[in-house]
Amino acid sequence: MSQSQTLNHVNISPIKAFSDNYIWAITKSESHHLALIDPGDAKVCIDHIEQQQLVLSHILITHHHPDHTGGISELVRYCHNKQWPIEVLAPKSNVIPDVTRQLKEKDKIELTDFDVTLTVIELPGHTLDHIGYYNNELLFCGDTLFSGGCGRLFEGSPEQMHTSLNKLKQLPEQTAVYCTHEYTLANLEFALAVEPKNPKLVHYYHQVAELRRQDKVSLPSSIALEKQINPFLRADQTSIKESAQQYLAHALHDEVAVFATIRKWKDSF
């Protein structure tokens, strides 16, 4: 377990799973209830529940990949054995188990145990079923947006991912960004290859390098920060376009082509 942040009157903490996953745990100080985002590993979640004496009431899923969904069934069984009501909220998919409500763009999620309302945003690109959950203060974006990076295009097109990232760019700048992998330092090493003269990026790289030397979590980020340092949100910037053209050795004429080029570059970086 690592440090928690208090936001929107709730506590948001990362539960570490596998080599670099974060399962986000939402709690409220006056309550024993717990909501989990993308619990790929049931054991670490059950350990957390029992150590903290919590009651799991909600599971929110962003997409169907097993490292985000693999713990659902065991957690549902655990809750049933405890006679706890449990809601599993997820995008429409044939492979996500035990879903109690399938979600689409603009659906509202009322987490009444936490006095939190989240809105669903569809984010195809990494997968076709990918969604995020947000309000004016926070965003759970799964594997769409990372700090300094974005998800690989396993199912969607560059156009889809570019559109999804542009939707996230429109969120309020103070929005805290909770993604689900500790990829920040590696992402920033690539971002520096693309935009080495970005002073905010250089500064952030050194901040994150120090955090990771201390084995501290680099998240959450913010929309404001990502717009300043993340090359995948900056395909409209001349510096990014010039680097992409240099990598490809020919001219690029639109943002999607720039985005697609740096995504391909990152895949082999």
Automatic annotation (TrEMBL):
EC number: 3.1.2.6
Keywords from the named record: Hydrolase, Metal-binding, Zinc
Cofactor info, note text: Binds 2 Zn(2+) ions per subunit.
UniProt cross-references to Pfam families, sorted A to Z: HAGH_C, Lactamase_B
Binding site for Zn(2+) 1: H63, H65, H126, D143
UniProt-annotated binding residues for Zn(2+) 2: D67, H68, D143, H181
Names of the cofactor(s): Zn(2+)
A single GO molecular function term of this UniProt record: hydrolase activity
Pathway(s) the chain acts in: Secondary metabolite metabolism; methylglyoxal degradation; (R)-lactate from methylglyoxal: step 2/2
Annotated ranges, domain Metallo-beta-lactamase: 20-181
Entry keyword annotation includes Zinc: yes
Transmembrane segments annotated in the record for this chain: none
SMART domains from the UniProt entry: Lactamase_B
Catalytic reaction(s) noted: an S-(2-hydroxyacyl)glutathione + H2O = a 2-hydroxy carboxylate + glutathione + H(+)
Enzyme class: hydrolase
Entries under InterPro entries matching the protein: Clx_II_MBL, Glyoxalase_II_hydrolase, HAGH_C, Hydroxyacylglutathione_Hdrlase, Metallo-B-lactamas, RibonucZ/Hydroxyglut_hydro
CDD domains hit by this protein: hydroxyacylglutathione_hydrolase_MBL-fold
Record text on subunit structure and interactions: Monomer.
Family the UniProt entry places it in: Belongs to the metallo-beta-lactamase superfamily. Glyoxalase II family.
Task of the protein: Thiolesterase that catalyzes the hydrolysis of S-D-lactoyl-glutathione to form glutathione and D-lactic acid.
Protein name: Hydroxyacylglutathione hydrolase
Source organism per UniProt: Thalassotalea insulae
